[in-house]
Every structure is written in C-alpha cells, then in structure tokens.
Amino acid sequence: MKYYCYILYSAKLDRYYVGHTEGMDHRLIQHNSGVSTFTSKANDWILVFKKEFSTREEARNKEHEVKKKKSRKYIEWIISAG
Description:
This protein has 82 residues and is an alpha+beta fold. It has a single domain (3-81), classed as GIY-YIG endonuclease. It is built from three helices and three strands. Strands 2-1-3 form a three-stranded antiparallel β-sheet, sandwiched between helices. The longest helix has 14 residues, at 56-69. It starts with a strand and ends with a helix.
C-alpha cells in the first residue's frame, strides 16, 4: 500500500495545509467538501506537493517534520524543490 505526505494550497485563504493519507484522490475531495475542520473554510484546495512512502509511519513522520518547522518559507521551499 502507498501512503503520502501532501501539501494543499487555498488561494481564497492564501494558506497551506499539510497532511498524510493513503488515498490521495479521495482525501482531496474530502478537503474540498468540508469534511476536515481546518480546510472547511474554503473549497478551492489544490494539491501542490505529494511524496510517496511505503509505510504510514514514514508519511506521518514527514508531515510532523514539516509542521514542526512552522514556516511558510520552508513549505514553499519543499514545493519548489519538488
């Protein structure tokens, strides 16, 4: 099974959201339909970055690493580095 750490962007809010999942397409639909509390404030979330991992733990660790930095510049660097 594949797991992903991902970053979404909302132009409406000018904000990023970092998460992890095993079903990327389904999760993006959930974010844009208001299922997730944080992302329910907008419905224009787009996927700007995703990285595949072989375990949920690896994906979760990457998510926590990004969130721990608490830096928009770091998130934008990750996106630009691809």
